[in-house]
Predict the structure of VanZ family protein.
Amino acid sequence: MKETVSRRKRQDWDNKKKLRRIWLFLFLFTLCLVWGNSLLSREDSGAVSDWVRQLLETIFGNETPAAQFILVKIRKIAHFLEYSVLGIEAVLFTFLARPVSGQGVFNCTALGLMAATIDESIQIFAGRGAMVQDILLDMSGFLLAGGITLGILIIARRIRGKSVKEKNL
C-alpha cells in the first residue's frame, strides 16, 4: 500500500515538473515576442499598431466612445495585455509545483519588474523613447493577472485539499 502511495506521489511530482517546464517555455517564448516587438524601429512599430488599429476598426467600427478609446490607446492596451499573459505564466511556473510563499511572490514580482525594465531599455537602443509610465503599466498588467491567477490557484488547492480529506473519511 505504501509503495503505491509513494509511486503516485512521485508520478504527481513528475507531472508537475513537466508542467513547470511547459510554463517556463511559454514564459520565455512570450518574453521573446514582447522584447522582439521592442526591438522594432519607431516606424515599424507604428506600422504594426496601425495595422491592428485598422483591423479592430473594421471589426468593431469607430462610432462608440469605447471604440474610440481602444483605437487611441491600442499600444498601451497591448503592453498591458502582454504583461498580463507574462504574469499568468510566471505565477503558474513559480507556484505550480511549490507551495505559495512570500519569497516566491517576491521573486515572481521581481521577475516581472526586471522584464518590464529590460523591455523599456531595449526601446532606448531601438531609437524609441522609454517611459517610466510604460513600466508602471506593464507591472499593472503583470500584477493584476498574476494576482488573480495566484488567487485561483490558492482557492483550487484548498478545495482540492478538502475533497481529498473527505475521500479519506
Remarks:
- Helices lie at 2-38, 42-60, 65-72, 74-95, 102-125, 132-168.
